[in-house]
Each structure stands twice: as C-alpha cells, then as structure tokens.
C-alpha cells in the first residue's frame, strides 16, 4: 500500500474565538473523562489549565494590556528581520481592504487551542521501552494503551509536557441503565500514558479529526503537513502585510530542536505567553554526542585499566 | 453577513453566544471586512473584532442616535435610496408633537394609564386628517397589554389605506426626514461621550467606518441579540438601528440588514409558530375581548384591503389557519370556526401569569423547554409562585431546578419555604433530546433545517410532538360524546397524523399541514399566494408555505455548500418563499438597475419583462420598476415599482413609525428603570410607557436623583457564556461543559475590586432590591470603569447559567434572582441587561440571615413597591 502523506494541524490562533468546542468534541469522540475538581481557576476563562491525560485539546486565554501588545509587536518584527517569512501583500480578489497598520490597541485577549505536536523527532516515541508508542502511516505519534505498561518514561521524554499518565478520572457523559444522568461508568485506561492520537481512528476512515471538524471559525485546520505549513506561511505574511508584526509561526521550522512539528501554530506573541517552550528540543537529540563522550570515557577507562595492569606487571 | 464590508455587533456577543453562526463573520473578516463590537464588556467577540468600543449598558440609543445625527448633518446618508425607498418624504400629521416640543415626551401621553394614545403620530391624509389604522387607533394601554409589537415579526402594522402626501425634496417641515433631523439633533458626539462613556475619537471612528462601508458600492450589516431586546425600551433600541440602516441604504442588499441573533436552536421558529400568549402562527394576533369580538372585526384589524402589499390578504391567512386546525368543522357559515379561538382579556405574559400564580389565581403550570426557577427574572418570585400551584408538569432532559425547588431550592435553605407545607404536586416527564426526535429548527436567517432522528429516546422520554399528540388523544377520549359546546374546539380539531414506524405521529405530516394543501386532494401548496379565502385550501402557517412544495421536505435539503450559488439555495428552506434576502427589490435602484456592479443582486430585465437575479425576488415578479398604479387598488396590485417593502402598508421602509409602536414613533433615549445616571437628554428619566409589576416581591431600586440611589451604586448586566446554555438545563448536567465553566462568577474592573476589597478568585456578594447572591470573583481589564457625566460608573458582569439545586454536575447562585421585572411595553420583555446593585466582599449569609440582608438594604434605600413607578419624571417641565 502506498504511504499516505504526513498529516497535521495548522492552528491559527488569530481567528480563534475561544469557544472550546475543540475540547468538548475531542473528549466526546475519544471518550475521555472529565477532569479537574470543578473549581474556578481564576485564570481568565481557562478552567482546563493544561493538556493532560484526559484533555487532549486545551484553549489558553491570555489577557494583555497595551505594553504587552507593543512588546509582542516589537519581538515579532525582530523575527521578521531574522528571516521569518517576509512581509508582502496577499493575493486577493477583494477590493483593496484598508491595510493601514492598526494602532496598538489598549487591550487584547489571546485565545489559542493547544494540542500534541506530533513531532518529527518525537521524544516520547524515542524513549518508550515497550513499543506502546509508534509512528503511524500518517506520520503521527500514537500510544497503544493496551501495550503501555505505565512506566512514565515518555512523560519525561516530551519537551512540551503533553503526555500524562491517567491516574484518576471521574466522568464522561453517557446514559446507561442504572446510572444517574451525569454520573458515569468507571474510567477506562487508568494508569497508562495518554495523549492526542490526531484521531488515528478517524484518519483510517478518511475523516477529519474531531477538533478540526467542529471548529466553527477554521482556526483549527487539518490536512497534509506540507500544505498546512504552506498556508501557515501565507497567513503570517498576510498578517504582517496588515501591520500585525506580532504574528509568528511555531513548529514550522524543520531545523528546530524537534525537527519541526506535525501541529503548527500561528501565535501572536512569544510562545512562553501561551505556555509553550520557546526552544523545544527532543531529549534524545544529544544521544550521539552522549554516546561519543561515553565512548571516549569508556575507552579512556579501558586504557587506564590497561595501563594499570601493564604497570602492575 | 459574509458579504458585508463592515459588521457592527452591538447588544450581542456573537462569537460567544452564536459561535457557529459566527463563521459568517469570520468569512467576512477573511475577505477584508471590518467588524466593530460595541459592548459594555470586552468579550470573545471583541477579541477578534477590528475594534472594541466600551459602552455603558443601556445607553445604546444615545450612541446610535449620535450616528444618525452625524450621517444626516454631514449628508453622509444614501440620498437616492432614502428618497425612493423609505418614508423620508412622507408628511406626518399636523397634530404630531415631538420630544423636542414637549420636554421629552411625544404627543398623546396619558399619565392616567402611563401609555400613549398614538393617533397624533399618523401620516397626514391627502383627503384631510390622518391615515389611521383600518379599525381606528388602538390605545397604547390595550396594545401593550397584548404585546402587540410581536405582530410585526413578518411585516409592518396596518393602515386604512396607502394614499399619503410626499415631498421628495425632503424640505417640507412635516416630512419624516425633517422631523427625524430635528429629533436627533441633540444626539451629539459630546452627548455620546457623556452618556455612553465613548470617546469622541472612538465615536468618529465608528461613524467613519460605517459611512465608508455604505452606499452604492458597499454595505454594512448589524447583528444584535438580547443586549438590545431586554430593556424597558428594547424595541426602540432596534428601531434606532433600523433608522440608521435605512438612512445608509443598508436593507435588502447583499451584506446588509439587521440580524436578530436568536438565542436557541429554534427560538425563531417559536415566534413564527408561536409559544407566545399573544400570537397565532404567521404573526396573526391572538383575538382580544372587546376588540375582536366578531370575525369581521378581527380580520379587518389585521390588514386593510386598501393598504399596499401582502398583509392586505390577511383574511386568507386566517381562513387557512382555521381550516388547518378545524377542517370540516370550519365553514363559511360559522366564520371558519373563529369563535373556537380563545380571547385575550389582558396581559397574560409569563410575568403577569407568575404574579397571578403567586396570588393563587393559577392552578396548574406546564414548564417545557425552560427553567424559570433559574432562567426567569426575579427567580425568588418564580419559585414562590410555583409553590402556590396545585400541580406542575416539568418536561425536560434533566431534573432541573424548576422540578426540584420544593426540596432543594434557595427558599428551602433560607427557611422561607418548608417542603412539608408545599401542596404543589410536581410531575416530571423525561424529554427526548434533539438527536432522539425528528423535526425542524428555524434559525436566525429564518431558515428551516430538518433534523432526522438518530436514535429512539431512552426509557419513557418522549418528543414534544409525541407528548402533545398523546395528551390530545387522551383528553379527546375523555370528552368523547360530550354535548357541552365548550368542548367542541377540542373535539373538532384535526388530530389525525399518520403514525411512523414506532407508532408515533409522523413529523413530516405535521410539516405538510403547516405548509398547506388543497382541501380536496391534499395536494401541497407551493406558495402562500396560492392560498384561497374560500375554504378550498388550508395551511397552518402561511409564511411557511412552500416548505413542503411538490410534496418534498424542502427543509431537509443538504447539498454541500448549498449548491455553490451565492444564495446557497439548496441548503434548507427560508421563509417566506425560500427567499434568502428579504426586501431584495431594494438591491436595485429606482429604475431596477443594480446600485453597483459589486453589490448587484436582483434587477429588472426589460427583455424578459421580469425581475431576475440569484434569489426569488421579494416583489411581484413582473411589476415594472416604473409602474405607478393607483395605491387604492390595495394589495400587490397597489404596490408601485419603487415600493420594495412589500410587507409595509405603504411599501416603504419606515424611518418613522406612524403606527405599531406603543412607546413613540421615533426612538428616544431614556435611562433604564434602575440607573445611577440622570438622563441628560430629556427631563424624562425612564421610559414613560414601560410596564411595571409594582409588588412587594418585585421592588425597584431608587434611580439617580432619588434618595437612596447610592445604596445600590453599581450597574449589573447579565449574559451567557459559550460553555453553557441559558439556565443550564442542557449544559450543567454535561460534565464536559460543566468542567469548562464550573462555578458562578462575577466580572469586575480592577477599580471596583479596589473600591470593595475584592480579590481575583475570592468571593463576592451581590445585593439588589430582590435578592442577594454570591459568586467567585474575576478581576479583569475586560470590564472598564466608565466616566459618565464626569462621574465614574462601575459595571458588574454576571453570567446567569447557575442555579441552586442538587442534581446538576455544577450548581451555584442564580444571577436572575437579582433582577426585577420591568418590561418593554411593545413586547413585554423584561429588562435583564441593566439593573442596580451593591457588591461586598465575601460569601453571602446563610439561612434566615439572607433575607435579613436584603431587607436591610431595602430599608436603607427606603424602597417601597411604589419606588420607581412614576410615569412622568417632571410633570412641570414635561407639560402636565
């Protein structure tokens, strides 16, 4: 069978409306339980806080004043001069829109839907001792819960903090005889590592992943990885042309520490603002050097021992 | 909306409350449109807006009035459109007096009833006198009691005839245009700054953007929701936008209009085929005692045969409805069984009914698809009222608070009610969800979309159709053989729906009945123009005729992308006549040519002798644009070739409403019933014709200028979040949604937090003259403190999704408990978007101490049931 092209997401946070439909659709499709303790976090409208074993899409909400916005523009402009996609007018049939750079607004509210990055060099996959993690024919990274032994090595192996072991869980909305509505059957797959599968089961049926399918504003786009990266580059150029120099891509650089990600993002500020590592690096990137150094050290020790024996004669 | 060059979202939070419909705004933005969000809060809509403008809740008429004044005084309005298609040139009666002349009131105010006699607002009659309604003028007190404003859901009010005086130079001092110009002259940018808290720069930005995005080449569209309707002058908020849009030529064209963003999946459907006390299907009024005693009186009052347009055929629509309901029992001899219809004897809206319930005048209550214990204003009054019932039926997906208040409601905790003392018998009937039943939803664009049943409902759960059908069958079985004439309406009903595979009535058979058919052979009608007034056709809702054309369920059409054309005409079915844009004759100029290539839509084709374009023209298809028939012909024949507003009695868009509104022919700004701000525009503080329920369980806070107003110094506004659905019945029982917004919270500005010692994540207690509730605190820059008349005004945001009970996944205090019931006189809709409160740090008292806290505030403010009930604020200045 022919190898299908690598699949991925392009999440354009500049048009996200923070509706969280992606979070809900993901949980419904994947039968993931509710998590958290049902308490308000006080972190704007974010009551999910982070990705985890039961939350494979997470929408961050960041409230910013004028100074932070100006800083984001400045840092974005610096990236453009560093060789990010250059500023240029977008091709468009629409009568000339007003492209004058907007004044720096007094306030903005950033929303961004985060997800597993499905890295080109996936740390979780590299370190898994059981083979529970595998790279699919779509170039995505998936955990097989029935193989996973719950050792947790992949949790430490992910530079983005995406993978988590499901220690406990509470509820998922189904109606079963004998259960009160809203009260749920026992949580499955306890104790094993969990993360986004990029809806592997849906891809096999040629269906769009649940989150992208439900996104009302097309903030989450799904498709061939190369075309996702291409549209991400087009979009960032379009925003730059409108004076929004704060726009930048995340994960689209194949020379970064994880070889680029399958899920690329358009952000409107530094990655740290959204809780993303600024310079992710696969934990196994240094293995060759480490082996080399270990080899040198070992050779040295062997030599020293040999010398010791030779001297001792 | 996707075709607009500029979208103004105001009185609504579209991205948050209508995220799916928001895709069209996203599409417009992607095409380069601008979107401005004018709202008291910075919301998820503001986050993706081109610009957000903070406005003081309830001051929208000042802002929109300022825009109208700006467009008129700088001559930025679309002159050719205004002259040709609106009533700008029409002359108003000599007897009309404006707010400018009368210190803030229009002529005809009756301080006795607190309502207007609208007769002086009429058009001048070429034959002398005024153009009244077909059965004279109805006093505002009676029109308000039957919320007559609802009748205009598919067109304007009736006139006795369509002959009017017009001056197309717009110079005559009594032309609507000159009246409008004078009326709005005091709505200046400075007034906007002082009353709305909007800077002159921001005001000018919005004015410039709308002006640049209107005219021949461009269009601007408005979207609003309950942020406009839920006020004591809510209908006038929308009227102000309508005046602005007509002035700018933004009606009936691609990317134009005013979108009413409806709040539930089929709330549009539930006004078309109403669940309202005062309407029959297709916006026919419910008959009233005294006014509509005979069939003739009734049909004559709905539409005059001498007026222009399609409401002249109102009698046809009535006959078809009665024929659909009573079949063979409806005959010409018995006036089509008109006397089977009940008659209204006064205001029987949800709030008057609740008050009657509390006073022991109502025995039983069906609660269907609503959760009044949480979702209605003044929740305590609602719950105490239900405790007076003999029986209560709640049909819902979950055991909502309206079904459990008797054992775990707030009054049980406070000790005001004891379960063992409540005699109400409560029946809970499980309801089927939307995937467990088939039927149609009618959405914001008037589009019907059919849903197929995915699974059978579990256990005893039933659809509404199955439930009511069975209820009808059982009641009719009980009454079988009765000779009592009062049982005839039930026994003569057509109640013969064929069963589906599960033995339940087939929903498509109901759709076919709504669509209408030829009585003899049941052949479906394809347009309401095929309806006859002689009993040979029948149809349950004339505006829906065509949805079952050719015997095919047109609402079930689901061609991807709607088939590819600009109107997406192969997706669903849009009333009336599958018309995607209403009044689309206005998309062409007076001569029938497109206003511009860019905004071309419908146009006159001389060769074919008909209107052509991508849509079904909303006009007689073969009427030449230069046709000038005698208006006294009435109906479609009476329409001139430049009368695009075919559901208005004179064929024109109404900048000025000579009839139909009960609180004034033009919008005027009045403060909310409860406001810490003095009205700087007029001596009149509050909407003079507002509807009040002055009772000790519905007390009002003193307003600015009255003693005690500082006891409730802050403005609060209520709203929804994306994560929950209204009173929570569908979302707080779903763990996936509940976890996303788990607790009731209030949103406050950093200034208010400092003033009251509130901390982010901590607790606050909010006190109004009705109740005190507690909420977690979010301190955020999304809420701004505003400078109004030189003084800081603080606003508090309260989502209303939570309720006190024990069954839901998440519970919390209900924001609506804080609201009083003060209503718009046109629609009987309560003012939920502005009210007065105080905020204190910490949690609220428990037990009997809760009512003590509320009472201590009432005492300090000196509040009595009479507080805030004065109709005229300053009788001397206002000429009384």
TrEMBL record, chain A:
> Per its Swiss-Prot or TrEMBL entry, what cofactor is needed?
[4Fe-4S] cluster
CC annotations in GO: cell envelope
Pfam families assigned to the protein according to its UniProt record, in alphabetical order: Fer4_11, Fer4_4
Q: What is its main location?
A: other
Q: Describe cofactor binding as the record notes it.
A: Binds 4 [4Fe-4S] clusters per subunit.
Residues binding [4Fe-4S] cluster 3 are 116, 119, 124, 158
Q: Which domain of life is it from?
A: Bacteria
Q: Tell me the protein's name.
A: Formate dehydrogenase O beta subunit
């Amino acid at each position: 069978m022919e190898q299908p092209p690598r699949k991925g997401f392009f999440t354009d946070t500049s048009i996200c409306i923070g509706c969280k439909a992606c979070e809900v659709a993901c949980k419904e499709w994947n039968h993931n339980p509710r998590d958290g303790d049902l308490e308000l976090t006080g972190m704007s409208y974010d009551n999910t806080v982070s990705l985890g074993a039961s939350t494979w899409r997470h929408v961050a909400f960041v409230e910013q004043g004028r100074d932070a916005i100006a800083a984001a523009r400045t840092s974005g402009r610096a990236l453009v001069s560093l060789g990010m996609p250059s500023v240029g007018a977008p091709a468009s049939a629409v009568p000339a829109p007003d492209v004058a750079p907007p004044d720096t607004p007094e306030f903005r509210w950033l929303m961004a839907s985060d997800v597993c990055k499905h890295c080109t060099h996936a740390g979780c996959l590299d370190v898994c001792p059981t083979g529970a993690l595998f790279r699919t024919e779509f170039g995505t990274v998936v955990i097989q819960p029935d193989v996973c032994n719950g050792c947790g090595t992949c949790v430490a192996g992910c530079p983005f903090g995406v993978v988590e072991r499901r220690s406990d869980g509470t509820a998922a909305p189904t109606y079963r005889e004998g259960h009160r509505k809203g009260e749920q059957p026992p949580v499955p797959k306890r104790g094993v590592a969990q993360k986004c599968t990029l809806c592997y089961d849906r891809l096999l049926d040629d269906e769009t992943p649940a989150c992208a399918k439900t996104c009302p504003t097309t903030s989450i786009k799904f498709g061939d990885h190369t075309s996702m990266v291409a549209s991400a580059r087009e979009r960032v150029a379009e925003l730059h042309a409108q004076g929004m120099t704060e726009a930048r891509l995340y994960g689209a650089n194949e020379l970064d520490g994880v070889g680029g990600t399958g899920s690329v993002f358009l952000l409107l500020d530094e990655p740290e603002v959204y809780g993303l590592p600024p310079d992710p690096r696969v934990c196994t990137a240094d293995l060759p050097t480490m082996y080399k150094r270990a080899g040198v050290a070992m050779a040295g020790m062997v030599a020293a021992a040999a010398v010791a024996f030779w001297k001792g004669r | 909306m996707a075709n607009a060059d500029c979208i103004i979202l105001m009185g609504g939070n579209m991205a948050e409350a209508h995220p799916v419909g928001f895709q069209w705004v996203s599409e417009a933005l992607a095409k380069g449109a601008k979107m401005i969000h004018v709202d008291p809060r910075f919301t998820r809509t503001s986050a993706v807006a081109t610009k957000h403008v903070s406005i003081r809740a309830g001051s929208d008429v000042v802002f929109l009035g300022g825009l109208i004044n700006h467009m008129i005084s700088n001559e930025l309005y679309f002159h050719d459109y205004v002259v040709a298609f609106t009533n700008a040139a029409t002359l108003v009666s000599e007897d009309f007096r404006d707010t400018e002349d009368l210190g803030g009131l229009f002529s005809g105010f009756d301080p006795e009833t607190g309502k207007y006699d609208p007769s002086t607002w009429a058009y001048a009659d070429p034959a002398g006198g005024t153009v009244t309604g077909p059965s004279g003028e109805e006093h505002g007190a009676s029109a308000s009691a039957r919320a007559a404003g609802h009748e205009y859901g598919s067109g304007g009010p009736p006139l006795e005839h369509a002959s009017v005086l017009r001056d197309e130079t717009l110079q005559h001092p009594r032309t609507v245009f000159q009246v409008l110009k004078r009326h709005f002259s005091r709505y200046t940018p400075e007034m906007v700054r002082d009353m709305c808290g909007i800077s002159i720069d921001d005001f000018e930005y919005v004015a410039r953007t709308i002006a640049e995005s209107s005219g021949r080449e461009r269009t601007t569209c408005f979207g609003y929701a309950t942020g406009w309707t839920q006020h004591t002058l809510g209908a006038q908020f929308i009227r102000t936008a309508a005046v602005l849009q007509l002035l700018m030529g933004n009606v009936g064209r691609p990317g134009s209009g005013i979108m009413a963003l409806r709040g539930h999946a089929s709330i549009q459907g539930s006004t078309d085929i109403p669940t309202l006390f005062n309407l029959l299907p297709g916006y026919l009024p419910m008959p009233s005692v005294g006014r509509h005693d005979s069939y003739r009186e009734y049909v004559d009052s709905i539409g005059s045969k001498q007026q222009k347009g399609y409401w002249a055929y109102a009698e046809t629509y009535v006959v078809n409805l009665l024929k659909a309901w009573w079949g063979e029992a409806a005959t010409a001899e018995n006036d089509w069984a008109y006397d089977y219809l009940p008659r209204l004897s006064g205001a029987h809206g949800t709030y008057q009914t609740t008050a009657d319930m509390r006073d022991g005048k109502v025995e039983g209550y069906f609660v269907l698809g609503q959760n009044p214990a949480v979702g209605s204003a003044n929740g305590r009054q609602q719950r105490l009222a239900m405790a007076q019932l003999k029986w209560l039926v709640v049909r819902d997906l979950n055991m909502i608070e309206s079904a459990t208040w008797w054992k775990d409601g707030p009054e049980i905790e406070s000790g005001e009610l004891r379960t063992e003392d409540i005699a109400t018998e409560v029946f809970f009937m499980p309801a089927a969800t939307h995937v467990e039943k088939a039927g149609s939803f009618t959405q914001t664009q008037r589009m019907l979309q059919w849903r197929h049943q995915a699974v059978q409902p579990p256990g005893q759960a039933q659809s509404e159709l199955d439930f009511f059908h069975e209820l009808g069958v059982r009641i009719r079985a009980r009454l079988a053989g009765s000779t009592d004439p009062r049982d005839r309406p039930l026994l003569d009903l057509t109640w013969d729906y064929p069963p589906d595979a599960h033995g339940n009535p087939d929903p498509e058979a109901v759709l076919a009945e709504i669509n209408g058919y030829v009585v003899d052979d049941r052949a479906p009608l394809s347009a309401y123009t095929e309806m006859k007034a002689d009993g040979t056709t029948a149809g349950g809702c004339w505006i829906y005729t065509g949805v079952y054309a050719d015997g095919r369920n047109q609402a079930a059409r689901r061609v991807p992308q709607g088939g590819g054309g600009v109107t997406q005409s192969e997706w669903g079915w849009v009333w009336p006549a599958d018309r995607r844009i209403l009044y689309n004759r206005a998309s062409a100029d007076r001569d029938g040519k497109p206003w511009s290539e860019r905004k071309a839509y419908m146009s006159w084709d001389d060769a074919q002798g008909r209107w052509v374009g991508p849509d079904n023209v909303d006009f007689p298809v073969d009427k030449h644009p230069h046709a000038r028939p005698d208006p006294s012909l009435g109906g479609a024949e009476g329409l001139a070739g430049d009368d695009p507003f075919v559901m208005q009695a004179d064929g024109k868009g109404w900048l000025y409403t000579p009839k139909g509104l009960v609180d004034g022919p033009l919008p005027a700004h009045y403060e909310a019933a409860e406001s810490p701000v003095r009205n700087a525009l007029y001596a009149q503080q509050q909407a003079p014709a507002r509807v009040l329920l002055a009772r000790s369980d519905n007390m009002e806070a003193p307003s600015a200028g009255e003693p005690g107003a500082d006891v409730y110094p802050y403005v609060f506004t209520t709203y929804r979040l994306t994560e929950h659905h209204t009173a929570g019945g569908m979302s707080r029982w779903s763990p996936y949604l509940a976890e996303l917004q788990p607790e009731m919270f209030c949103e406050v500005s950093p200034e208010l937090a400092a003033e009251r010692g509130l901390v982010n994540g901590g607790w606050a207690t909010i006190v109004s003259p009705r109740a005190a509730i507690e909420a977690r605190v979010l301190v955020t820059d999304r809420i701004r403190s505003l400078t109004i008349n030189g003084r800081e005004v603080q606003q508090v945001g309260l989502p209303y999704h939570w309720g006190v009970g024990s069954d839901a996944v998440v519970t919390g205090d209900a924001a609506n408990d804080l609201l009083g019931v003060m209503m718009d006189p046109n629609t009987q809709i309560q003012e939920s978007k502005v009210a007065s409160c105080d905020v204190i740090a910490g949690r609220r008292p428990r037990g009997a101490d809760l009512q003590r806290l509320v009472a201590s505030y009432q005492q300090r403010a000196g509040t009595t049931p009479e507080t805030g009930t004065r109709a005229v604020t300053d009788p001397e200045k206002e000429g009384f």
